[in-house]
Amino acid sequence: MRAGSAAKRLLVGRPLDSGRLGETLLPKRVALPIFCSDPLSSVAYATEEILLILALGGLAVLHLTWYAAVGIVILLLVVVASYRQTCYAYPGGGGAYVVSAENLGRTAALTAASALLIDYVMTVAVSVVSGVAAITSAVPSLDGHAVALSVFFVAVLAWLNLRGVRESGRWFAMPTYAFIAVIHLMFAVAAVRMATGSTIRAESADLPVHAVSTYSGIALVLLALRAFASGCTALTGVEAVSNGVPAFAKPKSRNAAMTLAIMGALSVTMFFGITVLAMVYEVHVAEDPTELGLAPGTPMSTALAQIGRATFGDWHILFYVLQAVTAGVLVLAANTAFNGFPMLASVLGRDRYAPRQLFHRGDRLVHSNGIVLLALAAIVLIVAFDAELTRLIQLYILGVFVSFTLSQAGMVKHWRRELAKPAGAGTRGGRAGGVDRRGIHRRLAINAFGAFLTAVVLVIVLVTKFTHGAWIVVIAMPVLFAGMKGVRRHYDAVSAEVAVGPHERPRALAENHVLVLVASVNAPSLRALSYAKTLRPTSLTAVTVAEDPADAEVLRATWVARGIDVPLRVLSSPYRSIVQPILRHVREAPERKGDAVISVVIPEYVVGHWWEQPLHNQSALRLKTRLLFMKNVVVIDVPYRLASARELAAERAEAERAEAARAAQDADEQS
Amino acid sequence: MRAGSAAKRLLVGRPLDSGRLGETLLPKRVALPIFCSDPLSSVAYATEEILLILALGGLAVLHLTWYAAVGIVILLLVVVASYRQTCYAYPGGGGAYVVSAENLGRTAALTAASALLIDYVMTVAVSVVSGVAAITSAVPSLDGHAVALSVFFVAVLAWLNLRGVRESGRWFAMPTYAFIAVIHLMFAVAAVRMATGSTIRAESADLPVHAVSTYSGIALVLLALRAFASGCTALTGVEAVSNGVPAFAKPKSRNAAMTLAIMGALSVTMFFGITVLAMVYEVHVAEDPTELGLAPGTPMSTALAQIGRATFGDWHILFYVLQAVTAGVLVLAANTAFNGFPMLASVLGRDRYAPRQLFHRGDRLVHSNGIVLLALAAIVLIVAFDAELTRLIQLYILGVFVSFTLSQAGMVKHWRRELAKPAGAGTRGGRAGGVDRRGIHRRLAINAFGAFLTAVVLVIVLVTKFTHGAWIVVIAMPVLFAGMKGVRRHYDAVSAEVAVGPHERPRALAENHVLVLVASVNAPSLRALSYAKTLRPTSLTAVTVAEDPADAEVLRATWVARGIDVPLRVLSSPYRSIVQPILRHVREAPERKGDAVISVVIPEYVVGHWWEQPLHNQSALRLKTRLLFMKNVVVIDVPYRLASARELAAERAEAERAEAARAAQDADEQS
After folding, report:
1. Could you tell me which chain B residue has the CA closest to the CA of A546?
2. What pTM did the predictor assign?
3. How is it placed in the membrane, per its record (chains A, B) (predicted)?
């Protein structure tokens, strides 16, 4: 334990005071990389996902990329506009769960929560795996270690987040801005080179694209829709900003909405720019190298890596910079989920849809349990899907659009309720309080269109992706839903069960019969007996188990010789177990009736080293868990701290004093 | 827990009464397969191990097999004769640990114990892996699944042993006898066929044996000694009988000695017979198929499988019977260790060289902890060595001869002490009491020769095997030794620390200040408060942590409204933790001084389903482990059993009543 505690302190830093939470409010320039690294970074793979699907139809259908891209840009603009409304309406944070809960009821809220929980996990898994693909595109020799690298990055992210959101922000700003800068630099270089007459072609431009089958009519439309659905990964994570409004510096809603607008503009520019270059350079990609006429197992670069290599040149330093910042922003995009998931889990814990301990904050003002849970789930997915991006991405988009649709539908309800209020009454919170009824009509219209469009895309995603992996999500969501309902039902049942009438008050019980377990006459036993006497019990008996009859005889003799004034009861142990005879003795005790209780006092050896644990108290532990199940039985642990435990306690106390002194000093410096 | 308990009952059967231990005494016909399956089954691979080593020297040196075989037969006879003396001298069980402890002191005893613990694990690993090799020799398609099959068999053995020794005996008798029968049948068929003029040759007789290098002079002698050392695997497990004397039916010593003699005769016959056939059939084996001029990766049959196939013919049913019973007896040979290891661990636990809980017997009269530990260690070895017999066997023989040598040396000391006694005084136990001094001189001579011979072999094994893997054992033994010493030192230190003066007696403490932790006014809290009042404490306070200040205000209001006559103290929680504020409150309490104690009463929710556990008491658990480290603090668990827990308790009580009724009925039937 000693090592564990020191390691925790070293890893997650000193605890922050609740009163200092204000300090962690984020200005826009810090909020953008924290909340927008997910949507911004997804441009790194969105184009490629479109090309991968259309490649199934061969060279002839690749031009459909344009339609898919335009559709995605329009969708992105609509969704951003919709979520800006949410920022104003919910300055306290308008995640899909909150908006659905307030406007659409429990079922919608839990549906949204199921979708969000899955999406947070998928965000971590997909972003990290895609970031690792950027690395292996630049350093092909790492190709075989994708799983290990991905797991490593997830672990690093979890560690950074356990240290707290503000420090994360500082670190996380750099790669996001670098990514934006390098992508725009790439556009500039490409524009200049093409303007000066160069013809730039991708390394894969001359590879034949073998159609898997011929698509026409309905099949072709479905293929195009599937490509569009795949490209919709560009939209993932847009919700994070509206969810995180309370973390923004004031004016919160305005800053959040502004950040969303900036993010939207950057996303559209980068996504469309990359798509244009992919088409102009004739980038060809396929899930399997054989479809491009290559030998099986040939390592393939990502579409973005191909564009970068074609623009900057193969061994040019800028190509490596591009790959590095792409990997950086993608791995950090997972951070969006590390902010969102524990927050949602905490809200679910508060509402008793998840274990209560998810509601507790840890030392570092973050929901440590949620962070650890998220990291573990993502690691399981990465390992299970062998870090293959194309297989993971099939599970990704469905949940996103479920929460989009529910969130927008909830907003429609919200604005209609606002309209139903008598004119002049303020709307809820923030700047929205000042808008007139025409403004509300406009917001209603935006959200209604957003809800309609995202619902249509949801159906498209469901139809085109179902057999490709989305069915897993279709199963997982109801399972999570039922699980959360079950947890709530359990808590409600327990609350009802433990409720007491208005006139019940605590009153002393009539009898307290105390049993003290002893194995020999030593300090822990005497301490336990002394404590038992302090309780002034109705009856007091020392109990021992005669595992070895000779030992028991020695104990009895010592007992008599010392003149200990507590009767000693020796229990025989026919099955040579310590636990069973005691349980039987307690179970059959006539005293355990009516208004009486049996208190079992266990002298416990407290040790300071982890390796000393298995040498002590093993039977006591098993005994306690069984005794707690018995009616009218109470278990009393009288600890006897061995030297090693006293040392550990002293060290801990010293560390906590030093901690408090440092915290006081910090507070002085800052005031 | 419910499922766990039911599963345990289903898996290990009903508990046995200590008084019924007598029933499990074993007649010779049952003791032979239980205690001798290890030495008997090792003839299945001992010959092959000799051939494998000599193959390194090429065809020219294969004739040295005869010398190695004769040496091993002599050694086997001497060791069996030596251990027969132990059976008489130690009717209470004369394992190397006991004999060394009594005659040579602690250091020798712990050395023997280290060697034995390693050997038990090796017995399980080697026997099971070799048994699986017999299976894959007959069914080559299973070749790739050796690790999985081996792990499976270890798990099955552990399960059978958890059910108890007697039932194991019944099951385990069959394959051992079948193995003996089929091997002798094979000898008969071979004799008849050869007598009638057939020439039988092994499938590998025509394969060239490529010498790895040329051996002559000292190198050749060393190679021969190494082959001899490898063949000494035939001796492993001989000690089991002398160790298990108390499990034999009366007269214990005589029956055990007789069983040893039968085992010795069978071992010599089978080992020598198999070696003769291997030489006559010209069986050629090598670690690597390329040394036999085969393609890399060609599956190779074991030597015994080749002999069986040559004798019975390739597809003859008897060949498959041979492989099946060989696999059967080898997998069951591991059972010797499953008898011996927990017994040794229990003795070490009794002497405080191992955690005490290894001393406790489980429900089924067996040392469940030891069985589980042994199975896990063997599985780790099998997985680590990829189920490769030739690599595992290098670790095997060293420990065996360490314990042989110590055991025999201890016996020499024993007999010399007997001789030193005045004439006419009875020697310790059994038939030995009646032997005269000439008889003792004879026994002394036998054990002295045994000690000398096994010491010589120990040196040979150490020298020839050290670089081939035995170094691992040379490292592991001192580690185990130091570990056991450390455990004993810890227990001794604790005993000294908790010792009390002769006049100390339990006496009531002056003050008992009681804190009751509450989160809301409900049945568990009221129950805890009622119990606290029963203790008639010096002071009584209810304590709550204001994780959410609003909730705390509600609680305070309810408290006042109900007129609960216990003061409520609300602790602020700046770090939003439940545990820290309570710890700080207790740490800083002025009452925790001198002859006073603070009792912290925790209302605990007891639930009946395992999945309900994470929904409750998580903070209480962390709190308890920290409170126990504080001076003058006692923790009191007041359980509140929810409906599911009451159901579980009722089910358990019902099951235990039924159990008791069945046990009583069994006892009636048998009396």
Report:
1. B360
2. 0.75
3. Multi-pass membrane protein
